[in-house]
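A further point concerns the way the authors explain their paired sequence and structure data. Showing the layout once, in full, would remove most of the difficulty. For illustration, here is how one protein appears when written out as sequence plus structure tokens:
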Amino acid sequence: MTKSNTKPIWWRALPAFFTIMMVSTIDILLLNDLIETRYATFYNLNTTSKSSQRSMCLNASHASGISTSLYLTTTNTPMTISPPISDQIQSATAKLNIIVSLSVTVPAIFSSIILGSNCDIIGRKALITIPFIGKILRYIIMLSVIIWNLSDIFIIISVILDGMFGTSALTILSTFAFVTDCTTLKQRTSAIIITEVSITFARIVTLVGLGYYLKYFGYLIPFCVALGLSILGFLYSLLFQPESNQTVAHLNILQQIKLVRLKPLFKVLQVFTIKRKSNNRKMLLLTVLTHLSVIVMLCGYASIVYLYLYGQPFCWGS
């Protein structure tokens, strides 16, 4: 067997994969907590000690009314507040979370479908690397939001850029494709199990560590850590991540991206429209819809559970 036909070791994709999963887990908790804290400050509930904040949340009472906008366009503090403060904060946070979710999901769907359908043409390395660019841009903007207290529109811009580069979904797709390329049928099951387990491990480590950082250091250091991880993941993917598709292994990432075409996209759509024996087509559609439903449920649950814990009756802070 010649050297050119030798496949890379399958676990070479795990460092970048583990890193992007850590960063994505940081996204979920850190952004939710930051938005809630910004609105708590906006409504004068975050200007005292932690114990005082919790007491104010637990004993929040009705006052004269002001409306809640979709997102902050100013950092000025309102003069009056309506019904319980915790409800005002939860309402404003929930509305912004909806906008943020749509802003990252819509571009991510298009970029993942277009680039993902070209995965066999442009190779795996490019798709493992590209999402880190979006993460780097996202955290640079988020650090600016924290340092200069910018309006929420910049948070929305940051997640749009993240979505345009595919987010972690693109890395997950290309990583599993890489593992499949580099394993035999006998090796594949154990390799995929290890890759799946690394997702859980990355999330557990990140959530535990992030909780302590938020408690003692605020938001600046966690966002710096997320930016640092994104840069490290990008450099590893760019310099050390091998390409499993030997037909494009000699090309750099820009040359690989230039190979993107729309024709593979139509072939992907044909998978769902082509006639199949028995009920195979219906089963495929049902499986895909079930998978999408689970993803929507998990994503929605993550945001809602944090809001519930922040408000009455728990009033838990970071």
Notes: Confidence is low (pLDDT under 50) at residues 61-68. Residues 85-117 form the longest helix (33 residues). The radius of gyration is 22 Å. The chain has one domain: 8-310.
